[in-house]
Amino acid sequence: xxxxxxxxxxxxxxxxxxxxxxxxxxxxxxxxxxxxxxxxxxxxxxxxxxxxxxxxxxxxxxxxxxxxxxxxxxxxxxxxxxxxxxxxxxxxxxxxxxxxxxxxxxxxxxxxxxxxxxxxxxxxxxxxxxxxxxxxxxxxxxxxxxxxxxxxxxxxxxxxxxxxxxxxxxxxxxxxxxxxxxxxx
Length: 185
Description:
- The chain is mainly α.
- It has two domains: 9-102; 107-168, Arc Repressor Mutant, subunit A (Orthogonal Bundle), CATH 1.10.10.
- The chain has helices at 9-30, 34-51, 59-80, 90-102, 104-120, 123-132, 139-145, 150-168.
- The chain is globular and about 55 Å long.
């Protein structure tokens, strides 16, 4: 259990970094608009920092706590847009968010498994896959740097993705297995 006599910024940032991918995917399931999603994430992080001194729980509880904060940020945003006819009903949103909170553990396991599988890749392949999914990267530019064709690079990436899917025990071409979230690799 984490108890804070003094607010420790580094503990908060470590817990936040660990839970951020799960909270982000949880929010994506509830908020489709990119700008709303970003605003809610930012407000959830600020609120979590402001309330961190009152948080009592272990590292696993922190992620759930963040998702609850995010859900309240969604509700706050919805109140400001209540006149919009495209807003989901409160009952439906509650059902979706409850299912999302319940799925946090499986999402965390999935992310941990992906990280393990990435570590099993040879370093050049791991670096390539991470670089391809970095912002402002294009296959064409990367292929030119490697003095190869974009098609050859796409084939290499296909083989790397296939190896990751095999490691994750996901059939090729399948977006997910069981209740694991569908991440693009």
